[in-house]
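Sample entry copied in:
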Amino acid sequence: MPRHSKHRACDDFQETARALTRRQLLGRSLGAGLSVYMASGMPFTRVLEAAEAAAADAPRAPVLVTVFLAGGCDLLSTLAPVQQAGSVADLRGKLALQQPALAKDARVAAHPALSTGQNGGIAGLFEAGKVGFLPGIDYHNPDLSHFHSRHFWETGLITQRDAPGWLGRWLDRHGRPDNPLQALTVGGGLSPVLRSVKAPAASVGSPGDAQLSMTGVWGDQAKAALRTWERLAKHAVSGQPGPQAAAEAARLTKAVADRLAPYQGKDGKPHPAFLPKADYPKDSDLADKLQSLAGMLSLPLGIRLATVDSSNDFDTHDNQAAELRKSLGDVSGALSAFQADLEARGLADRVMTLVWSEFGRRPQANDSGGTDHGAGGIAWVQGTRAASGVLSEYPDVRRLDREGNLRVTVDFRRVYASLIEQWLGTDASEVIPNAKAFGRIALVR
């Protein structure tokens, strides 16, 4: 089947990536490693005090982590339907997955790259009862635009209008007004999933490096710059708004850098909390982020929500066999290490991870050895308390919708509502409009 012209080179995917940067709210930077959002009235010197107070108030509070796989992860090649293997082969030819069934559920077979990593990777975690797969997830009458679909998933609303994130709305109702570390994006810029109206949140790039740094400046010049920064931070500046703003920024940055100093480590070595207790893959951006997150979860910061974006590209219009193998291997290695790290730290029973992508792929292969934008994708929940197995109905490749796509078998808002109630312990209707209409699915045990 020829690839649809509007997807060639997937300009939509590239434009979505650029637009995401524009949509992220501007934060107040506290040095190299931390930015705070929606907290303009809170003194930054109270960031850690508020975080420690939140941790003390609820030391066993559940944490929800979301991991985004950008581009539209293909269901049929990630978790294949064994009993439909012949029909899939008719649609895909050489692209059809040829793997033995999983021991825990003989109806499905996992891509071999999902065995990458500790304890057998994601496939191993599934066999151990720590993963619940959600095939056929999407929304009805799906829009196959990266930009629109991603926005719908981020907000939990099927609307192109600007709106807070679904977890941002939860934060507005149940978060604290004084702890921006309660909701973290690990990486640069706040995820739209956590965008709120009034509750503070933060993005963390380098948790052990929240201090002043200047690109291209080092040695005596860097030391002189730091001395100037410290002098500027100590003395009030009156007169012009520009110098006043610079002095205030220096003061606030130094104040928080000083407060975060205990977590920065010494002599070039990281703080003990950031030493991993599992073997993370090397040269993996996702693994680095999850390793940092595991360390932060071990600290008294009062974290309740966290978002992480994978840098892998699941928009496999071309050369899908090789591209998907690489991307799934990286995700499996990083997430299995994260799970092992949480378990070694004694945190695993408090953390639930939701892995998602904005849509699936078409059942039929295109002429470029890939698949185009389609419906009925894949997500999964992961953790020691995650419901295990195949948790939703697998789409029937012999009964496609009128556009030739897989039929949606579970609405993503049903998953959101279930996590809000079963994991976060609050009423889903506060966050998801008309939540009762989506029903519930058991995701927590």
About this structure: The two ends are 43 Å apart (CA to CA).
